[in-house]
Amino acid sequence: MIQKLIQKFKRPKVYIPTAVIVIALIAFWFCLPKPLFKSPTSYVIDDENGTLLGAAIAADGQWRFPYDNTVPEKFKQCIIAFEDKRFMNHPGVDALAFGRAIRQNISAGRVNSGGSTITMQVIRLATQHKRNTWNKLLEMLMALRLTLTYSKNEVLALYASNAPFGGNVIGLNAASWRYFGRSPDKLSWGEMAAMAVLPNSPSLVHPGKNRQTLLKKRNLLLDKLRAQQVIDKSTAELSKLEPMPDKPLPLPQQAPHLLERFKAEHRHKGETGTRIKTTVKAELQQQVAEILERHHRVLKANQINNIAAVVLEVETGAALAYAGNIFHPEDAGLESSVDVVNAPRSPGSTLKPLLYASMLHDGFILPNTLIPDIPTQIAGYHPENFDLGYDGAVPASRALARSLNVPAVKMLQKYKYERFYEVLKKTGITTLNQPPDHYGLSLILGGSENTLWELTGAYASMARALNHYNQTNHYTQADYHAPTYQKTNAAPKLDEKNGLLDAASIFYTFQAMEEVMRPGEEMLWQQFTSTQRVAWKTGTSFGFRDGWAIGVTPKYVVGVWVGNTTGEGRPNLTGINTAAPVLFDIFRLLPVTRSWFKEPDHGMVKISLCSESGFRAGENCSHPQDTWVPAAGLKSPACPYHRLVHLDATGKWQVTADCESPERMVHAKWFVLPPSMEYYYKARNYQYKPLPPFREGCAVSEKINPMEVIYPKDDAKIYIPIEADGTRGRMVCNAAHSQPKAKIFWHLDEHYLGQTQDMHQMAVQASAGKHLLTLVDSDGNTVKVRFTVLDKEKKE
User: Fold this and answer.
1) Parallel, antiparallel, or unpaired for β 43-46 and 275-277?
2) Whether 55 contacts 63, CB under 8 Å
3) What pairing do the DSSP bridges indicate for beta strands 275-277 and 546-552?
4) With CB atoms 3.0 to 4.6 Å apart as the test, which of 95, 373, 439, 760 could cross-link to 443 if both were Cys?
């Protein structure tokens, strides 16, 4: 039987028609172009609720929004009533309409009616066929094929997304915004009826051209909808009173810099869709933009032209507002098109909290460990505090709150910049493109480049890690991730024994950051319970080129940058003066966070601390105090500044066994700082008591040198300016001695210069070249410092 069937199909009269039929079916099935529409589309960004934030014209100069599979019910009713009343029932070709069109055309003697269905119009839009009989038949065939695999709603969506609406406006979505300034789902019956008749005669939309014709078409459609009982009489009459679309409106530009960023990243990644729903809140975005504009008007008087801000949600890292700059495209001199949120800039002091948290995490310091704050020169690097003063020693938390530079460099020197470099990389900082040695200790004072986007994201990651630990008592590296402006699936959370930064260290960091005085409020904000609690940090780059402010609450992080995109510095362009006021204006927009960061009890230990130095209490600490600290505090060193001293019965003199019998000695625990730290510390801390001098005749048995050179430091390179008369000026050298009345004898290159008492300063005239400064006190203690005086042309 099978053999007979095969033989039958082998006959020419059978297999040739069969082959033709098979080929025809294959051609029919593959007749649709892939993809159906190839025209470029506009880049479009929406807010979290789908509200349009901004759009960019397509590459071919058309306003053509990407395909939208949702068609408003009003448009569906209008377009079917106007173009294809049997659309929901025919297979893509309406035989009745086509027959009627042929009769009308024959009667008229010309092509007066096309009989095209909506499905056939979709094919014509996709293929751009010229109107002739052959193409009409081809469109009918392709329309039948389209109906096989596309639902009626999908065909309507293809039509609504690609139909011409006049000028360079393609698609219902773009047309709705261009002509009415609203999304299609918010159009009235009158407005939607106008939209439905436009694709049939898109040239009618031009102002002043055939306006009455367009109005007549719209009103006829409204009458038809009323006759079909789609709308009632009153709706039809009121809709006819609505104005027709006039001159095209500009599209919203609420987040122009985010739109440009999306375009650039989309092209880089090679993605296909050109429309995204962002995490931005449109209302907040607008309010932030207004705040930036208000401050810009003031800052512009000082020729500070640019300002940017970003608001992140801590839990997700999602951007709730993204203002890359002020936006004044009409003024090219402002360079407002530059997206500073994503531009690498010198971060000033904004990395200091990360160093503080890192050192707490690794046990290098405790929250209030005293850090030296004295003139410092390290391998030619000479950091200075903003006020050019010194405290001698300052608790680490206060050094952070006051943003002192010298203690920060001292801390990084102890922690090692290579280790800190790796921490920054792990927190999501990607702009460190050079090896650690390229930045050195200047890394902590803005010697690198970072973006507002990544810095704000790093603070959000810290807050997220602290929140999650307090909820679960576990850590996960997934808490440290870059911010996002698109909704993404959360990464799987794998528990870790130790976090990148432990919760207690982060908690103490935010606690120190909260103690900073807010601009213009002089701490009075703490008296108002309704005021937002914020942990915040400012930063100012070298040369007053960048002003930063970043603030953190358990729910939100706000970052602000102020400056000039040209890199020009301006007087008073500091973080505290320019960026901080903007920061707190933005926080006033956000819901008040009633609860503050919870203290992470499980990540802390109670140890005895020295109240004067902030170190772990040693055996000689006079006022130990039990305090909760990060668990790594168990590894921190004991207090080096307390020692046991021996006094006479009056307590006015230090004594030794050479001049006083042991049974008459008074033994006291004494807080003693090194001479250079003591020199500045005692001037700012009245409670500090220097050691009493040794009684005459007592041999000094101290191993610690009571004398120290403050300036110059060992191996320093110094430039001494030339005076008006052409002679080289003098350098003023400073020293400190722990004994108040001690004499110091000064020598330069073994030549005696003189002696000092009480105030140990000496004006020194030194020629260009290497020198040796030698100091000797009355007890024979000696200090030597080598330094180099530079020639004028070698000034560094």
Assistant:
1) parallel
2) yes
3) unpaired
4) 439
Q: Which position has the token pair 């639902």? A: 151
What are the residues whose beta carbons fall under 8 Å from the beta carbon of 587, sequence distance 6 or more? 532, 534, 551, 553, 556, 558
Which one is predicted more confidently, 558 or 762?
A: 558
Nearest to 710 by CA among 741, 658, 675, 681: 675
Residue range 599-622: mean pLDDT, rounded:
92
| Contact in structure between 648 and 660 (CB atoms under 8 Å) | yes
Which residues fall within 8 angstroms of residue 385, CB to CB, at 6 or more apart? 373, 404, 405, 406
Q: Which residue has the higher pLDDT, 687 or 491?
A: 687
Between CA 52 and CA 62 the distance in angstroms is 18
State the first-to-last Cα distance of the chain, in angstroms, to the nearest integer: 103
Tell me: the pLDDT tens digits for 452-474?
999 999 999 999 999 999 999 88
- List all residues 6 or more positions away from 469 whose beta carbon is below 8 Å from its beta carbon: 475, 499, 502, 503, 600, 602, 603
Q: Which residue has the tokens 């000496």?
A: 762
The two beta strands, 546-552 and 43-46, are unpaired
Identity (one letter) of the amino acid at 685? Answer: N
Kindly tell me the burial class for residue 689, based on how many C-beta atoms sit within 10 Å of its own C-beta (0-12, 13-18, 19 or more).
exposed
* pTM confidence score: 0.86
* Structure tokens given for 276: 């995204």
Chain center to CA of 595: 24
Residue type, position 710, single letter: I
- 257 close to 307: Cβ distance less than 8 angstroms: no
Other CB atoms within a 10 A radius of the CB of residue 530 amount to 6
CA distance 313 to 240: 47
Rounded-to-integer distance, Cα 377 and Cα 748, Å: 20
CA-to-CA distance for 592 and 533, rounded, in angstroms? 8
**Rounded distance, CA 404 to CA 231, Å?**
72
The residue ranges of DSSP E strands in 165-233, in sequence order, are: 169-170
**Are the C-beta atoms of 737 and 759 separated by less than 8 Å?**
no
- CA–CA separation, 552 vs 512, rounded Å? 12
DSSP, collapsed to helix, strand or coil, labels residue 242 as coil
Q: Which residues have C-beta within 8 Å of that of residue 597, sequence separation ≥ 6?
A: 463, 466, 467, 470, 507, 510, 535, 554
